[in-house]
Fold Acetolactate synthase.
Amino acid sequence: MNITGAELFVNILKKEKVDKIFAYPGGNITDILDELYKQNDVDVILPRHEQALSHSADGYARATGKVGVCLVTSGPGATNLVTGIATANFDSVPMVCFTGQVPTNLIGNDAFQEVDIVGITRHICKYAVTVRKREELATVIKKAFFIARNGKPGVVLVDIPKDIQMELGSDEYPESIEIRSYKPKTSVHIGQVKRAIDILKNAERPVFLIGGGVNISGANEEMRILAEKTGIPVITTIMGKGAIPTSHPLYVGNIGIHGSFASNTAISKSDVIFSIGTRFNDRITGKISEFAKNATIIHVDIDPASISRNIVVDVPIVADAKIAIQALIEKCEKLDTDIWLKEIDGFKKEHPLTMRSCGMTPQKIIDSINRNFDDVIVTTDVGQNQLWTTQYLELNENKKLITSGGLGTMGFGFPSAIGAKIGFPNRDVVCISGDGGVQMNIQELATAVAYEIPVILCIFNNGYLGNVRQMQEILYDKHYSTVCLKYRKGCDCTTARNEPNCNKCQSTYTPDFIKLAESYGAKGIRVTREEEIDSAFAEARKNKKTPTIIEFIIEREENVLPMVQTGKPLSHMIIEK
């Protein structure tokens, strides 16, 4: 039977079991939107900006494990997806993004709202393609979902010209697809596993270094079993946090430039690092030439390009994290790590991870979330708010963290929380953001109100772009350049550079987040004292139909510590302010 490309598109969504699509309208996708209008199986979510739309699809995918699906028009609609595509792809999130395109006969003619979105995005996604013929549409989309899901997950972009959406053609859709050039390896090389185990047997100070690959593969339970069976302590990257429960006695903490003293010290003193699902990027290694100089390194990753790219490893194992861990569970034995674990416990006691400030600190706010939410998804924006969250948030099988790790995208937190809540409407979803990042996609309050999405948006308001301000305080002699969000033209400092005397700034903050929430039809609560924290969360949880903003007024110059300066080894930590 012959149907239009737009009809085939909607049929394919149903066959791929897509039940939510995040879409923003425009001229070159009107035919697809008309077909979506005629059916009831796929919910169409209309955010208020295409970038936020992509972050919502991302949050939905991370929360549910399904493929996130986007649909936008050509030109600016497509280019507004770029940051969201890079964000999701960096963190290995399965997404398929569909963009409209001008008719094929106009491509290359500088037509209205024409951009080469494939050329723009091909280096920030797994695969990008423009459909050139109607008979190729079904195969291209099948390939897109296969590539997004399989191997190392990621983003695929499919650009569909308007004439192909309108053209008649076959309604057939392949049940499966074979891509000769794409055959991701998931099985594990048993010989390499045995080599790794032999090395572990002789280790005195071994550690597991766990990245986001373990969470992506759903190997959390297996990772806990492996840690307990071997007795090896577990250190995580920010993206790997939650691989085992943070309350587990073998869990040490996060590694990296804002990792705990115990974690960074344990890595530096280890003699064997067994890494699973991490890229060894600069945020966790510090100075590469000084990273774990005396350690033998074993590295499991599904992506062979990630192995020995930054840190040269001794035993490479290309495999899916879950399959590799299952193989290790079968063959590993208990190691004598008691002395090593006591030494690590000493590191924790020497410099415990805690904020010593009085009053209402970010740690106390996050501790309240830990106490009051038993089944919760927490999303973050990027900046100090993210780092405090990854330091103090407790995670287990019922508490999940969603954050932008690889790209570090401000504006990610709130729309990703909306996507997560759409995926799990019966779970609590809390977003932790800063007063800077939240304003990058604050318009999504309208989306949350329109769709009755009761996420709780926590804004840590210190009146600064705090992460950069902290660097300027420590490394640039308090030259607070373009970071004060309370700046007014009439400030004493007289320039937008905001010299240290601007610390005394008493200007009114813009916007008033409480009034802004109310103007959207949401609820707003301002918290200025520690005693109000628990009651604010209790009040927010009563709000079942609209989002709630809780604005926490925190100390303006609160820092995230420990901190390792860029280019310094992990052992060179700034512990106290």
Remarks:
- Residues 25 and 438 are 24 Å apart (CA to CA).
- The chain has a mean pLDDT of 95.
- The two ends are 71 Å apart (CA to CA).
- The chain has 22 helices and 22 strands.
